[in-house]
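We read letters as residues; the fold follows as tokens. Both lines appear below.
***
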Amino acid sequence: MHGPTHRFGAACALALNAIVCAANTSGASLKQETVNAWDEYVHAAGVQLQHRLDADDAFLWTDQTPDRARRVLRKEIVVAPASPDIPVPVPSGLVHDWIGAAFIPNVSIQDVLLIVRDYERYSEFYSPNVVDSRAIASGEAIDRFSMVLRNKSVFSRIVLENEYQTTYVRIDDQRLYSLSHTTRVREIADYGTSGQHTLPQDEGTGLIWRAYSVTRMKERDGGVHIEMEVMVLSRDIPSAIRWFVGPLVRRASREYLTTTIRQTRDAVQSSLAARRTGQVSSQSGN
């Protein structure tokens, strides 16, 4: 690794944008009371992260139960809501909060970072949901980047054009975490048509108003444990259809986070295999 802090977060930022509420696609505007409730929720998440950092044996969510730890080492991808009452209702909105974990054998944190920093290939790694991505600014501890995301099964012709800021912290030789949040979320309506247009920030369907993530990585057991906790603020589900839409949102959240983690793992393993094959070919040619 090059230095005490490292860049990680784009993959979890992708997961952030999948946890959406499609109950009502009519126009809406984000209210200040909703933002205030979101800020309080994110602050509480930061307090919880500090508790994990203060105790090494609590760093990984995976380690909280023996069953979860066994499943991850069996190469399962384990995904669950952060609490039983997810999504959490807030004034004029909902907070969706899910955690996913996986184990990538025979790799290092550096191997994972080589993938999540390769923005130009995101449409390949995370197809078909990433339309475009690019770096805005990179630093020793902070990255800013943008992504254009589409999920036809949810958004129809609505596409999200988001910007993010991610802070990366290397704790020690075995542990890394990142904090990522949206700095701008805008909807592109009627995407791909002659009527395509970008809406002002904090206006639109409210599928995603804000997003925040905490990602933890630990080298152990001959590989890397990776965990993503992703939180999204969306508009509320109308009470008349909540009984029907709520379970669909929870299922979509679980499935999408599972897919995102699997795609990250597959890309890391494929990249490492290709590099090793190239090294063998180079040695054979000498």
Notes: The first strand starts at residue 28 and ends at 29. The two ends are 29 Å apart (CA to CA). The CA atoms of residues 51 and 212 lie 18 Å apart.
